[in-house]
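Comment thread on ticket #2218

A.B. wrote:
> Attaching the input chain for the structure job we discussed in standup.
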Amino acid sequence: MKTVIGVFNSEGQAQRAIGALKQSGFDDNEISLVAKDDGAGEQQGDTFTGEDIGEGVTTGGVLGGLAGLAAGAGALVIPGIGPLIAAGPLAGILSGAAAGGIAGGLIDWGIPEDRGQYYEDQVKQGQILAVIKTDDDTVDHCAQILRESGARDVESH
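C.D. wrote:
> Ran it. Output below, let me know if you need it in another format.
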């Protein structure tokens, strides 16, 4: 298995990428998203784990409209980063590895520590991180979809 990772500047770009990935056969068990939740205070710490964020669950605007990504959307707070919204299999890893931050969670998925720190910094700056676990034979196709949807810093590990 490989991990493909990319950074989106906007929710719209991330939505396009998720739609294209799902149309190409990727499923919720492979796709994860992480974003800063600037509206977390309005949610009063509610956890959305297991709910389909594509069915109207709002998360302060961030990731609220990402249609069809059902696997484990949740709100969490990571020291040094603040409130986050995470969806997909990475959400569970991040909630268990809160002390290690996003970078620590990404190490478990084969992302080198220095690159994990870079991606964590991108989320701190308000970017949306897409992380897809996929088979070796679909890595290039997955990376292409991310790039065509507007992702930058697309890498596979």
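A.B. wrote:
> Thanks. Noting for the ticket: Residues 40-62, 65-71 have pLDDT under 50 and may be disordered.
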